[in-house]
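Reader question, answered in our methods column.
A reader sent in the components of a multi-part assembly and asked whether the whole thing could be modeled at once rather than chain by chain. We filled in our standard form and ran it. Here is what they sent:
COMPLEX SIZE: two components
ENTRIES:
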Amino acid sequence: MYGDLGQKLVHHAKRTQTLHHLPSYQSEVVRAVTREVRDLDREVTEMVNTIGASFDPSSDPGVAYTLLVRHLCLRRNKRCLLVYHHTRLRKIEGLCWAGGGLDALDWEGSETRGVEEDIVAGDDAEGQRHQLSPEEEEYARQYTDLLAAAKGQWTDVDLTGSLEPPRDLFIDVRVLKDAGEIQTEYGAINLTKNSQFYVRQGDVERLIQQGFLQKLG
Amino acid sequence: MDDILAEFDAGAPSSSSPQDVEHLTKFWIAERTAPEILPYQGDVLERLMERVRDQISLLESSLGNLDPTSSFRLILVQTELERIKFLIRAYLRCRLHKIDKYSLHILQTPEVRARLAPNELGYMKSHLALMNNHYLASFLKNFPENLRRLDDTVGRLSMVDEPDMDSAVFCKVNRDVDTEITIRGTDAAFELKRGEVLVVRYSAIRELVGNGDVELI
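And here is the structure of the entire assembly that came back:
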């Protein structure tokens, strides 16, 4: 029935909202809904052409209703498609804010896997990168640029920083993944897995967001 | 301890307007509570940012100074700095959130559009263009011409999301207001006395928030 596929997209969108990662793009369904829209539109145009401009709805209610129902289905399908895409865009934007761009999209939702494994999995059909449609990837890239530009005007504040009010200048962190050496004003710290440090929050903010470090206490 | 604090007070740069932080805190709270976007507080932000930069350069110039009194002072300065940065960040992010949510509405209403800073406006326009392109590329390009618009109001359903001006807000009355407040659509009418705390529809007190008679909390 008309609209069934659109409904499916809405369900997907609803589900996406509660998930941590982005499920794969339903290109099949999107294509099917778009096809349905085109078919409906063609039928409507044909009908309108055959009945002519002097059509009186009360003389033939059947035709009038058919037209109305098709018309509403068209609009509804459009809304469903928009909802689906918009929800996904919001999610992508959220990931851009949280992790600083496409890299985050690549390993978001795969917290248990190491970074190296992800790079290998990137070529795999199940890889994270393939869960976006090509258009979405393009969008993510452009949005990252836009975000970088917006951030550039506020370099001292760091717009993508934590939205938790800061309590202490220094915090305890545990290293979850090897992150190499970082430079702080108190000297260099080598972040090796499972070690624990007492560091300035501002220095490691980004690493906490990216999941390399865990804040303790 | 006392003399350290005294020295800290003496050493603190005398600021032109010490209430800026307090003001921005108020604006931030108001921005978070109000359903619509409020005027951009460019002056306050600029003054604060100037002082943030001053403090950062103060910190940088005293790097490597290992005198215990001064390092205690530096910790205070850094803590304060983190808090101010958080405040500014939270304020800007809150505005960006509303801009993303109501972008079409803001774009179509010149009065609201004037409340945005030039860089916010730039961000909003680029973001809208990006989304538009994405929808077009993903499915709208396959749609019939007449269904491609994103700001339709057909069928009593507007595609443009508007802030709900009738949502309830908590507010505090700063000054007595002589005129009686009425709530549209009901027969409720009341006067505002200084110090009162109320929960009302935002639309009823919207103008009073603008001139400072009422403060959102």
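What stands out: The radius of gyration of chain B is 23 Å. Residues 68-101 of chain B form the longest helix (34 residues).
Send us your own complexes using the same form.
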